[in-house]
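Q: Structure tokens for this one, please.
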Amino acid sequence: MKVPNHIHRPSIKQYHGLPDVDYPFHDRDILVTSCGCICMHRKKINISTVLAGQRLGIKEVDEGVWLVSFMRYNFGYIDLEQKTLQPIDNPFGARLSPMS
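A: Here is the predicted structure, written as tokens:
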């Protein structure tokens, strides 16, 4: 029986990371810090360390309430008074159609 080390071949394609993300329909983009936070109006809001170093799009939808997006996914809303991200339903979850 062969072990993975005997049959594995490195990919010939090089990985260059994610492409630059642009948010033309948002008010602005914002960088997630290495500790997983964004800074808005002198307030730190915890997002996730998973997104550290990535740019998010933010759009004000009501006074003090901002929609947060990454690429084409809307993550949730930030209320600047509470300084928290309120998540939207999981955009990566299973998509089940209701049965009739």
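A few notes: DSSP finds one helix and seven strands in the chain. Residues 28-87 form one domain.
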